[in-house]
């Protein structure tokens, strides 16, 4: 009511205002010529409230619900509001994209002015809003409303929310309108009072099942804001009723079935809405839910194989649907007959004669119950007791017991139990054998006779045998009182036990016992033997006197063996040769063995520094030995290695380290470098750095080549080595013929000169890409390359490349230009024969030509040369390459008289050429031409064409195509627009297409009416792996990558810290050391350490005491041992070297590296006391091989990437051996260096034949000569190797040496 009063009041006020304005207007006062009027618009549309004022004097504005919108026509702050009008009198308010908030009263107000009072006029804007989609409460659109058949009333409520005005609602049943039993009302929406919600309730009374079942009820909602048809929602009525009772077929109560019969049960239920769910149960457990519906019935068929457990099982069929409160059921109980599957006999199988044994036989479940009978010796036995009981698995279990009294004649009698199902006539049976106990015979031992010696380490097998007894005997072996494991075997009534042992020295005099027993023995029967074992000594120890050794002074080495049975013989070994010593007698030792002592007296020379003297103790009866060795420390002046380079080749700007370290003792050596006999101040030459005998050269220059000398000095004297440095450098082209211009038919000559060291054959060469060099002649002479080109023609114009390469560094190139003179030739393509420009603009004519020498251009029009002195014409020439030119004529401010043909003239000294180009107004482009097929795939075709004249405007292309014999073309615009090659995609496999191309610009389109045909491939490509598949591939989480990186950095830092710590401690120990005689165990003398595929020289020990003294802790061994040094308990028998004469400085700043090779046994050249060849296990790296090549050959295997390692890699790693030498773990091997230059005269070496697998990277042989050997050394009479003079003549030719010495 309030709303209508507001409208009435507004109309009244407006009427009064109109009357006043009409009266005033007569007198020329401002007044409304058009009054605003009430309007209604749909939300989102545009509303326009009209207002026009004549004789306006005051300012005009609109208000909304009393709020002034302002005098600006754009109405700031209200982007959707604006004031529009075609004349100055119109002030219409336009609202775009209207919203409900725009609903209200608007006034057009004109302010007062001189003699003009204010005036205003208003109107009401109503916004119409369509309602939301109608909704039937409780049901979605298209859903089914299910009603029990007992329900007689249904109310459906349809709601249409938030409409403006409220929606009207209609109901339909199966498309027919429903007018009765409907209640309609409207109310304010909860969202906003401006919106209205309509509700309509229909009451349905189902009359009969067939009338309302499956009926469709539709609710339609509409209002004045809805465009198109009304909004609808629909539901379907479904009247529910229970299903029919289940009917079971396939089995009747009381019917008997057997196990493994197949039973097919069928349960059927008829009627019901919906049809019932049919479910099978067995003993109240669901077993099958797979029913099927067919018309007006539901059926569940269950097929199974009958088992014994199905006896008395209840099978039930349940039927239910949404109407039934509980399932409708039908059931039966199944009767199954089945025999027992097995019988089981329990009772004692072993007993003594005279005892009574009770046996019980139990059958498995059976229906009906089984009958049990007993048999023995072909006769039935009386049953002591028998009973039948129910089985939890169905059926019955029968139990029967018999009692048997045993005599001596009842041994191994078989008793049988038989169970029979009489109803089925099926029987099962089982047996048991009863045995009588008696003891076995005493055991005997075979395989060893008392007093027979056994060698330690060999396998000794002894067999213990016992026969008879029931059960058979159990045999056990004992060593003293310790039980041993043995292999037992039973054959009939004979049992044997074989004991296999690896004999040890503590088995000497040990007693082994075998016992036999069973249940019939009161105490075990036994027999025993005592072993005699031969064993070699486990260690030898060497003691040196005096502790400080100087060349020429007499010294003694004493070797003592550990216990051996029988005693061991001692020999001394040096460089694979036996040396005589003095025996000092025998003494008793552990395990019943003997210990021997032998003394070697010698006079060492400087060549014996670092020499290894080995002591070998051999048990001759078993031919087994053990070895130890000691490294001598002898003082001598510096000696350069024979591998030191006398000729050094270095590439310019490269860096190199030259190792000129010396062998010296003491090792404190001062090095001085001379050039051309003059002492070189290293500090003044920044590229040279001399440290500890290693000359480091950085970025060497040509000027550094020359003759040098290295002087080494210690407290014992001075030694000098001369060498030459040769600097090699890559080529540089110092001069080249830049340009040659010749006439056609002539000859061109080029020269290219390069500087390099060395100058190699064919260092300078001439080439040209995609050019036939057969018409040229290329020669080379001493760094100069010449090129002659004959019979020139214009195609020879181009660049020739001179390349210089001496395989030092990168090759260098320079180019030379050949230009052949010929007359100009203008490009007369059809697209260049035209030009276009509109009047008043600048026209541009392009003329392209090629020729040599330089080409100039001239333009004519109507036979008159154009005057370029004024601003009308401008000509520019661009040289695009050596012989090609582009000339552009620009005509400014084009007029009608400027249109027409122009002549372009190209001129050089060889001739002229001309071409006519026509200037016209802009037009549509010329058609493309020379359309060609390029290639095709299974779904694409690629074609190309030449562009015609573009009409003076930007031109694009369009491809028109269709399948051959089909109607209608398909058009595709070419991208990018100016491209002249295009690929059509999305075509069909193996089809032929007709194609053509058009050109178009803003003035039109021109087709090339001649077309081509092309066919797509008939073979489809294989499927590719999709990008999404690759993107979905599992990626490593970033957290894992970060954790791995952090752990890696931590471990790297830890390793660097440990290396620096051990290097410093090692140096400190070397600086504090005072002993001159180094001591080591067997591995020092006879083998290298092998770690990570690298064999390297051992370091010298500072301990000269015997292995029998516990004088080193774990830290001492930690520094001396290379990584992973662990030889095991038998290392002394596995590793020994025939080369004990490899010498070098006791301390090295950078030891040489060795490749790893496993030691292999070789037969020594000398014989033992009995004349038999002795086996000697040697490390081939210690064998003195012929010295050929450089230190690189000695320590580095060619063809591999293995590089020498630093000193920290070799020595400063954790030890892996026991901390005490009492445990007979050998000390570390001695340090090796390469041989000295003074050591070229080698001692004779034993002849050996090595296979390729035996040869390591060559190890530098020791220094020294035959004459310098100790007079106590016994020469090898069988030696047939090179003599000392031949050895002295060996020359090392390889110019490089790996590593540097300390």
Automatic annotation (TrEMBL):
Identify the CDD domains for this entry: FN3
For the keyword rRNA-binding, the answer is no
Cellular component GO terms, alphabetical: cell-cell junction; plasma membrane
**SUPFAM superfamilies in alphabetical order:** Fibronectin type III, Immunoglobulin
| GO MF annotation, one | cell adhesion molecule binding
What InterPro entries does the database record attribute to this sequence?
A: CD80_C2-set (IPR013162), Cell_adhesion_signaling (IPR051275), FN3_dom (IPR003961), FN3_sf (IPR036116), Ig-like_dom (IPR007110), Ig-like_dom_sf (IPR036179), Ig-like_fold (IPR013783), Ig_I-set (IPR013098)
Q: Name one GO biological process term.
A: cell-cell adhesion
Report the subcellular localization.
Answer: Membrane
Location of the Fibronectin type-III domain: 927-1022
Domain (Ig-like): residue spans on this chain:
30-120, 134-238, 246-329, 340-433, 443-530, 537-627, 731-819, 824-920
- Segments carrying the region annotation (Disordered) are 1142-1265, 1278-1302
Residue spans with biased composition (Pro residues)?
1254-1264
Q: Which UniProt keywords apply?
A: Disulfide bond, Glycoprotein, Immunoglobulin domain, Membrane, Repeat, Transmembrane, Transmembrane helix
Q: Which residues cross the membrane?
A: 7-26, 1038-1063
Q: What is its main location?
A: membrane
Q: Which portions of the chain have biased composition (kind: Basic and acidic residues)? A: 1200-1224, 1291-1302
What is its membrane topology? Single-pass type I membrane protein
Its recorded name reads Nephrin
Source organism per entry reads: Patella caerulea (Rayed Mediterranean limpet)
């Amino acid at each position: 009511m309030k709303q209508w009063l507001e409208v009435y009041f507004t109309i009244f006020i407006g009427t009064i205002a109109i009357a006043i304005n009409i009266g005033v207007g007569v007198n020329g006062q401002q007044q409304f010529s058009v009054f605003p009027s009430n309007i209604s618009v749909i939300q989102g549309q545009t509303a326009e409230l009209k207002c026009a004022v004549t004789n306006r004097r005051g300012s005009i504005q609109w208000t909304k619900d009393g709020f002034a919108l302002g005098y600006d026509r754009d109405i700031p702050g209200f982007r959707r509001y604006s004031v529009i009008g075609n004349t100055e009198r119109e002030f219409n308010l336009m609202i775009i994209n209207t919203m409900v908030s725009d609903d209200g009263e608007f006034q057009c107000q004109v302010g007062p002015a001189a003699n003009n009072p204010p005036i205003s006029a208003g109107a009401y804007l109503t916004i119409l809003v369509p309602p939301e989609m109608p909704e039937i409460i409780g049901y979605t659109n298209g859903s089914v409303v299910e009603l029990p058949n007992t329900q007689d009333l249904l109310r459906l409520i349809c709601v249409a929310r938030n409409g403006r005005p409220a929606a009207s609602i209609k109901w339909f049943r199966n498309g027919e309108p429903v007018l009765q039993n409907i209640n309609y009302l409207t109310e304010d929406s909860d969202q906003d009072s401006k919106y209205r919600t309509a509700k309509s309730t229909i009451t349905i009374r189902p009359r009969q099942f067939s009338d309302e079942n499956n009926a469709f009820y539709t609710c339609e909602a509409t209002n004045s804001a809805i465009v198109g048809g009304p909004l609808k929602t629909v539901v379907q009525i479904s009247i529910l009723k229970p299903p029919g009772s289940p009917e079971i077929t396939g089995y009747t109560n009381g019917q008997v079935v057997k196990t493994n019969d197949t039973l097919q049960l069928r349960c059927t239920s008829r009627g019901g809405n919906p049809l019932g769910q049919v479910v099978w149960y067995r003993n109240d457990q669901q077993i099958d839910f797979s029913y099927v519906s067919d018309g007006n019935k539901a059926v569940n068929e269950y097929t199974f194989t009958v088992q014994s457990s199905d006896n008395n099982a209840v099978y039930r069929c349940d039927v239910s649907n949404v109407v039934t409160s509980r399932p409708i059921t039908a059931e039966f109980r199944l009767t199954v007959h089945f025999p027992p599957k097995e019988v089981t006999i329990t009772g004692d199988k072993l007993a003594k004669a005279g005892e009574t044994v009770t046996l019980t036989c139990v059958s498995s479940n059976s229906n009906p119950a089984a009958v049990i009978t007993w048999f023995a010796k072909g006769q039935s036995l009386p049953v002591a007791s028998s009973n039948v009981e129910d089985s939890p698995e169905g059926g019955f279990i029968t139990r029967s017991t018999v009692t048997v009294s045993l005599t001596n004649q009842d041994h191994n009698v078989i008793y049988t139990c038989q169970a029979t199902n009489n109803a089925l006539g099926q029987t099962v049976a089982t047996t048991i054998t009863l045995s009588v106990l008696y003891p076995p015979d005493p055991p005997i031992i075979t395989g060893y006779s008392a007093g027979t010696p056994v060698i330690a380490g060999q396998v000794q097998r002894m067999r213990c045998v016992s026969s008879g007894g029931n059960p058979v005997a159990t045999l056990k072996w004992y060593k003293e009182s310790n039980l041993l494991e043995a292999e037992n075997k039973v054959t009939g009534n004979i049992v044997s036990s074989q004991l296999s042992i690896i004999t040890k020295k503590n088995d000497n005099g040990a007693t082994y016992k075998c016992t036999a027993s069973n249940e019939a023995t009161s105490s075990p029967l036994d027999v025993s033997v005592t072993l005699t074992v031969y064993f070699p000594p486990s260690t030898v120890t060497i003691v040196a006197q005096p502790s400080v050794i100087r060349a020429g002074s007499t010294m003694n080495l004493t070797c003592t063996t550990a216990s051996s049975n029988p005693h061991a013989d001692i020999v001394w070994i040096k460089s694979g040769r036996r040396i005589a010593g003095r025996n000092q007698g025998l003494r008793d030792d552990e395990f019943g063995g003997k210990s021997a002592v032998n003394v070697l007296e010698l006079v060492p020379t400087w060549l014996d520094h670092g020499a290894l003297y080995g002591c070998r103790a051999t048990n001759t009866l078993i031919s087994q030995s053990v070895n130890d060795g000691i490294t001598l420390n002898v003082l001598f002046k510096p000696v350069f290695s024979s591998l030191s380079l006398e000729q050094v080749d270095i590439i310019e700007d490269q860096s190199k380290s030259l190792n000129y370290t010396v062998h010296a003792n003491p090792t404190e050596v001062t090095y001085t470098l001379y050039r051309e006999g003059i002492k070189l101040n290293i500090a003044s030459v920044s590229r040279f750095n001399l440290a500890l005998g290693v000359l480091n050269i950085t970025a060497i220059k040509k000027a550094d080549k020359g003759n040098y000398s290295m002087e080494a000095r210690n407290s014992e004297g001075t030694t000098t080595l001369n060498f030459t440095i040769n600097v090699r450098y890559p080529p540089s082209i110092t001069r080249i013929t830049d340009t040659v211009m010749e006439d056609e038919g002539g000859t061109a000559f080029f020269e290219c000169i390069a500087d390099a060291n060395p100058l190699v054959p064919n260092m300078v060469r001439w080439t040209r890409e995609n050019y036939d060099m057969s018409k040229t002649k290329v020669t080379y002479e001493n760094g100069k390359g010449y090129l002659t080109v004959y019979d020139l023609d214009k195609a020879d114009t181009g660049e020739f490349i001179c390349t210089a390469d001496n395989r030092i560094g990168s090759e260098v190139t320079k180019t030379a230009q050949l230009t052949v003179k010929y007359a100009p030739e203008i490009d007369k393509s059809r697209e260049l024969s035209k030009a276009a420009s509109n009047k008043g603009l600048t026209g541009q004519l392009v003329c392209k030509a090629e020729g040599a020498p330089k080409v100039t251009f001239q333009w004519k029009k109507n036979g008159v040369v154009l005057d370029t002195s004024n601003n009308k014409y401008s000509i520019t020439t661009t040289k695009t390459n050596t012989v090609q030119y582009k000339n552009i004529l620009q005509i400014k401010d084009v007029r009608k008289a400027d249109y027409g043909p122009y002549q372009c003239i190209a001129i050089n000294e060889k001739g002229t050429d001309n071409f006519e180009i026509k200037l016209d107004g802009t037009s549509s482009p010329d058609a493309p031409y020379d359309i060609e097929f390029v290639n095709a795939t299974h779904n694409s075709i690629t074609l190309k064409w030449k562009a015609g004249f573009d009409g003076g405007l930007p031109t694009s292309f369009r491809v028109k195509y269709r399948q051959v014999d089909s109607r209608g073309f398909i058009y595709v615009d070419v991208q990018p627009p100016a491209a002249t090659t295009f690929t059509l995609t999305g075509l069909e496999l193996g089809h032929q297409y007709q194609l053509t191309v058009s050109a178009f610009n803003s003035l039109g389109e021109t087709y090339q009416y001649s077309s081509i045909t092309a066919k797509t491939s008939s073979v489809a490509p294989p499927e590719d792996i999709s990008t999404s598949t690759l993107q979905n591939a599992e990626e490593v989480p970033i957290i894992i990558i970060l954790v791995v990186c952090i752990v890696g950095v931590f471990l790297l830092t830890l390793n660097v810290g440990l290396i620096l710590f051990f290097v410093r401690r090692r140096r400190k120990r070397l600086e504090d050391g005072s002993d001159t005689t180094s001591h080591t165990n067997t591995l020092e003398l006879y083998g290298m350490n092998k770690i990570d595929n690298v064999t390297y020289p051992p370091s010298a020990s500072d301990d000269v005491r015997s292995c029998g003294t516990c004088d080193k802790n774990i830290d001492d061994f930690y520094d001396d041992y290379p990584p992973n040094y662990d030889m095991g308990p038998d290392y002394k028998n596995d590793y020994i070297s025939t080369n004990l004469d490899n010498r070098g400085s006791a301390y090295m700043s950078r030891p040489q590296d060795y490749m790893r090779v496993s030691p292999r046994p070789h037969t020594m050249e000398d014989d033992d006391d009995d004349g038999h060849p002795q086996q000697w296990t040697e490390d081939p790296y210690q064998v003195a091989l012929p010295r050929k090549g450089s230190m690189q050959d000695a320590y580095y295997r060619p063809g591999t990437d293995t590089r020498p390692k630093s000193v920290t890699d070799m020595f400063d790693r954790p030890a892996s051996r026991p901390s005490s030498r009492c445990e007979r773990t050998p000390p570390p091997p001695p340090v090796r260096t390469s041989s000295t230059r003074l050591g070229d005269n080698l001692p004779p070496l034993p002849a050996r034949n090595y296979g390729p697998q035996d040869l390591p990277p060559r190890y530098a042989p020791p220094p020294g000569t035959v004459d310098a050997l100790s007079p106590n050394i016994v020469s090898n009479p069988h030696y047939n190797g090179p003599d000392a003079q031949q050895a002295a003549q060996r020359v090392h030719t390889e110019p490089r040496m790996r590593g540097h010495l300390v």
